[in-house]
Amino acid sequence: MDVRNLIAWLDRLEGDVHLLLPRLFAKAGKKTVHDFRVAVKRLRAFFDLTAGTAEAFAADEAEAVLHPVYKAAGRVRKWQLIRQTLRKLEKKHGLDDRWSKRAAKEVEAARQKLAGLAEEFHLAPLRATCAAAKSRWIHADPEVLSHRLDHHWDERLQRLHGWYQLHEQDEQAWHEARRDLKTLIYQLEALHVAAPDVPVPGKLRRALLDYQDRLGQWHDAWQTWTTLVKHGLDDALLAEVLEARLDRRRRKAARFFEAWPELRETLRELGKAFARAARQAHLPEERSSKKRKGKKTRESIFPKNLDDLLH
Questions:
Q1: 304 in a structural domain
Q2: CA distance 218 to 226
Q3: How many helices (H) and strands (E) does the chain have?
Q4: Is residue 198 part of a domain?
């Protein structure tokens, strides 16, 4: 495991957030909002990985500044998706357009609220948290890192297994499973950047992205349905169409829970392989006598359109 690659990966994640913030506050277009939220999720997953493998690390300061913006961007994103869905359904089923027009107004209101956060946003806490994360990895003892990574990965899998056990009785388990699967994918992405010699089967990568996509599509349908009902949905035909759409996507998303027991075993073995790789960790220049010049950051094992696949 080359910790230097991991540090470079964190630089890239932090840079993505910095790059997107001005565009987010200025316009909050659909792609910008989506990309910003994915960038924050990736960064959060990295912080979670660091907290699970290092002593005395917490991302509270970064979360304090990111959360209000992430939440406000989430409201914009929600109404953008609802408007997009309604326009498609109105065209397909010849429905009245008053609900999509209402959604458009909600988008603009959410954008204004998001833009209002720009003046109070400060990057310093985010930079400090990223610097602290780098320090933890730079000064990691390989043997301790291996042990903690093994434990952290098992905890992540156990969380998902808990949602699997509850999913037939509690719909909230579907939401939590979607979030935790996403975190697992982002952490797998980071670990493979650091340890590219650990083989991650293409079949597993495709399965993870497929299940995440299914859960994401279900969530979008659930969010559209529940939000419009909350806002007094009174169009019987539209309600019928949305409910049928939600039911179809729920059945497709259920494939993740059907596959989970076998998937869990594969992921457990993969986690142990990364933990073994951590025992031979190559440390950054601060603790290594070897200089590293001109080496580029490794690319993700996932396809370049990963951000389009992960909601």
A1: no
A2: 12
A3: 10, 0
A4: yes
Contact 59, 14 (CB under 8 A): no
Reduced to 3 states (helix: H, G, I; strand: E, B; else coil), residue 2 is strand
> Which parts of 136-217 are beta strand (E)?
none
pLDDT tens per residue, the chain (311 residues)? 999 999 999 999 999 999 999 999 999 999 999 999 999 999 999 999 999 999 889 999 999 999 999 999 999 999 999 999 999 999 999 998 999 999 999 999 999 999 999 999 999 999 999 999 999 999 999 999 999 999 999 999 999 999 999 999 999 999 999 999 999 999 999 999 999 999 999 999 999 999 999 999 999 999 999 999 999 999 999 999 999 999 999 999 999 999 999 999 999 999 999 999 999 877 665 444 344 444 444 455 554 444 433 33
Domain of 258: which CATH number?
Answer: 1.40.20
pTM: 0.90
